[in-house]
């Protein structure tokens, strides 16, 4: 999430190979495309205590390359007329593609250890990370997933909006309850701005791929009935009128489902 610039601030070894591809994937089920999270980010400074409401949605995920991406929406940003949306890209700490050491974005190894150590779940990994960055760790079945999220650009506002996305997030995802905690790092912003999110898919719009498959089947059925409805009418001309009414209504239903799934549902894609 974009933040204000603060003036003057400065387990075990590898094991358990998968038979098909030689590795075991972490339990990322709650990190699937379309998954939504909601919560807050504390953006307090020495002068003011402040928290912004935040929504996050995962838009793409490539586990083989330790990559995911998504959008982050800040809802009550002062001096902003609309919610501020940013696009971010993430690195999954899988000890294969990425380690706990960032090596960029002005983060030193000491910065990495200091921020990762804010997560209690990182404690058992600390000694091995200090030794080799965690390269010899097997994180495939660890109940927490560590990530870095870096906002790349503003989606709906200009770069002159008075906010900055120069920093990045150290993120910890709980596989048991789907919660996310994070800490924002930027040498020019207030330190340790905390991000707290909970899984928020219940009751929200948006669909995972399985839901899209179901929606696609509905659309196909509706298109079929709409195209060949007169054949169904001839076939069922001796049945009660209600059946014919339902068939005629399929034209409207088809248009409704087509508009809802294609035009209204958020676009999901694999990056």
UniProtKB/TrEMBL annotation:
<keyword id="KW-0472">Membrane</keyword>
<feature type="transmembrane region" description="Helical">
    <location>
        <begin position="212"/>
        <end position="230"/>
    </location>
</feature>
<feature type="transmembrane region" description="Helical">
    <location>
        <begin position="242"/>
        <end position="262"/>
    </location>
</feature>
<dbReference type="InterPro" id="IPR018618">
    <property type="entry name" value="GID4/10-like"/>
</dbReference>
<protein>
    <recommendedName>
        <fullName>Glucose-induced degradation protein 4 homolog</fullName>
    </recommendedName>
</protein>
<dbReference type="Pfam" id="PF09783">
    <property type="entry name" value="Vac_ImportDeg"/>
</dbReference>
<feature type="compositionally biased region" description="Polar residues">
    <location>
        <begin position="10"/>
        <end position="20"/>
    </location>
</feature>
<comment type="similarity">
    <text>Belongs to the GID4/VID24 family.</text>
</comment>
<feature type="transmembrane region" description="Helical">
    <location>
        <begin position="153"/>
        <end position="171"/>
    </location>
</feature>
<keyword id="KW-1133">Transmembrane helix</keyword>
<keyword id="KW-0812">Transmembrane</keyword>
<feature type="region of interest" description="Disordered">
    <location>
        <begin position="1"/>
        <end position="23"/>
    </location>
</feature>
């Amino acid at each position: 999430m974009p933040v204000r610039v603060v003036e003057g601030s400065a387990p075990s070894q590898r094991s358990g190979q998968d038979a098909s591809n030689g590795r075991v994937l972490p339990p990322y089920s709650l990190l699937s495309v379309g998954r939504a999270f909601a919560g807050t980010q504390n953006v307090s400074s020495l002068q003011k205590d402040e928290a912004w409401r935040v929504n996050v949605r995962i838009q793409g995920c490539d586990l083989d390359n330790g990559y995911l991406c998504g959008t982050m929406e800040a809802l009550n940003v002062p001096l902003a007329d609309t919610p501020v949306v940013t696009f971010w890209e993430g690195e999954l700490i899988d000890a294969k593609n990425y380690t706990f050491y960032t090596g960029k974005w002005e983060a030193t190894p000491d910065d990495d250890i200091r921020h990762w150590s804010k997560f209690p779940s990182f404690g058992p990994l600390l000694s091995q990370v200090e030794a080799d960055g965690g390269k010899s760790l097997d994180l495939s079945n660890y109940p927490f997933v560590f990530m870095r999220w870096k906002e790349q650009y503003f989606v709906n506002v200009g770069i002159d909006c008075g906010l900055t996305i120069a920093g990045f997030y150290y993120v910890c995802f709980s596989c048991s309850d789907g919660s996310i905690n994070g800490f924002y790092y930027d040498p020019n912003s207030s330190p340790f701005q905390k991000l707290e999110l909970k899984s928020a898919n219940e009751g929200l719009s948006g669909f995972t791929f399985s839901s899209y498959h179901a929606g696609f089947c509905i659309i196909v059925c509706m298109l079929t009935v709409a195209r060949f409805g007169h054949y169904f009418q001839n076939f069922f001309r001796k049945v009660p009128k209600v059946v014919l009414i339902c068939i005629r209504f399929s034209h409207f239903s088809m248009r409704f489902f087509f508009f809802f799934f294609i035009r209204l549902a958020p676009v999901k894609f694999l990056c």
